[in-house]
Design goal:
267 residues, alpha/beta, TIM Barrel, 8 strands, Methylenetetrahydrofolate reductase, EC 1.5.1.54, flavoprotein
Length: 267
C-alpha cells in the first residue's frame, strides 16, 4: 500500500483501480484496494468493470459490494480480449454494461474509455465516434482517454466529440515515460502517434537512465501544462504504481490545477 499512501498527499479527485479479467482476482484484490483507497485514504475510488468477463449477476453482486463500501464510481470497459480466457455473454460492448449499471440502484457515476487516435478495432473515425456516442447516450458521465503523446490529436478528438453531441467531460490520459524498458515496449506496441520530439528524447537518452527519466518527466509536464491551458477537463496520470512520478509532476505544476480548477487523477 506504500504507493497509495504516497499518492494520498496529492489529494487527487479519484484513483482508479485496474483489474485482471479474472473474477476471483477482482473480488479479492480490486475490491480490497478500492476499499482502502476510498475508506482509509479518503480518496474517491473508481473500480474497473470489464464487460466481456462479467455476467449480469456478477455485476449486480459487485455493485452491491461496492455500495456497501460506499464506493459509487465505476469505469465500464469492454476489456481486452484474451483468447485463453472465456468471455461471458451478457455484455458484448461497454455500452451494454453502462446501460445495465445505469438501470441499477443505487445510482453510480459511470466513466467510459475513449481513444483520441481511434480505437484499434474501429474501421474509421466516424464509426469510432458513433459508438462512443452510444456510451454517452446510455448513461456515461465522463470519458477518460487512453494515453497519447500529441496534444493536437487530443484537441482534434475533443472537437469531433463536440460536433457529434458528446458534451460530457473528457479527461486526458497521460503516461510519463521514465525508463528505457517502458519506452521500448511503448514504441513496439502502442498505436499512439509518437512525435519527433518524443522520439528525439528516447534516441538521445536511451542509454542514460537518469537523463531519460528527467526528460520523460519534462515531456509529460509540458503536455499537461498545455492541456490545462487549452481547456482539458482534467488529467488522468497512468502512474504504473510509481508514486514518485505523480509527486514530481505535482511539485512542478500542481498550482495549475488549483488555478484552473482542473482534476488531477491517478491510476
Amino acid at each position: 500500500m506504500t504507493t497509495l499512501d504516497q499518492l494520498q498527499n496529492l489529494k487527487p479527485h479519484f484513483i482508479s483501480v485496474t483489474c485482471s479479467n479474472n473474477k476471483s482476482d477482482f473480488e479479492k484484490t480490486t475490491l480490497k484496494l478500492a476499499d482502502y483507497i476510498n475508506n482509509t485514504l479518503d480518496i474517491p475510488a473508481i473500480a474497473h468493470l470489464p464487460a466481456a468477463y462479467l455476467s449480469a449477476n456478477q455485476v449486480k453482486r459487485i455493485l452491491t459490494e461496492l455500495d456497501s463500501l460506499n464506493i459509487h464510481q465505476v469505469l465500464a470497459l469492454r476489456g481486452d480480449i484474451i483468447p485463453r480466457i472465456p468471455r461471458k455473454n451478457d455484455f458484448n460492448y461497454a455500452s451494454d454494461l453502462i446501460k445495465f449499471v445505469r438501470a441499477q440502484e443505487p445510482s453510480f457515476e459511470i466513466s467510459g474509455a475513449c481513444y483520441p487516435e481511434i480505437h484499434p478495432e474501429s474501421p474509421n473515425l466516424v464509426s469510432d465516434i458513433h459508438y462512443l456516442k452510444q456510451k454517452v447516450d446510455v448513461g456515461c458521465n465522463q470519458l477518460i482517454t487512453q494515453l497519447f503523446f500529441d496534444n493536437d490529436k487530443f484537441f482534434a478528438f475533443k472537437e469531433n466529440c463536440a460536433l457529434a453531441g458528446i458534451n460530457i467531460p473528457i479527461i486526458a490520459g497521460i503516461m510519463p515515460i521514465t525508463n528505457r524498458k517502458q519506452a521500448l515496449r511503448l514504441i513496439k506496441t502502442t498505436s499512439a502517434h509518437l512525435p519527433k520530439k518524443f522520439m528525439a528524447i528516447f534516441d538521445k537518452y536511451e542509454n542514460d537512465p537518469e537523463s531519460l527519466r528527467t526528460a520523460g518527466l519534462a515531456y509529460a509536464v509540458d503536455q499537461i501544462a498545455d492541456l490545462i491551458t487549452r481547456g482539458a477537463a482534467g488529467i488522468h496520470l497512468y502512474t504504473m504504481n510509481h508514486a514518485e512520478t505523480a509527486l514530481s509532476i505535482q511539485k512542478t505544476i500542481g498550482s495549475l490545477f488549483k488555478t484552473n480548477n482542473k482534476q488531477l487523477n491517478n491510476q
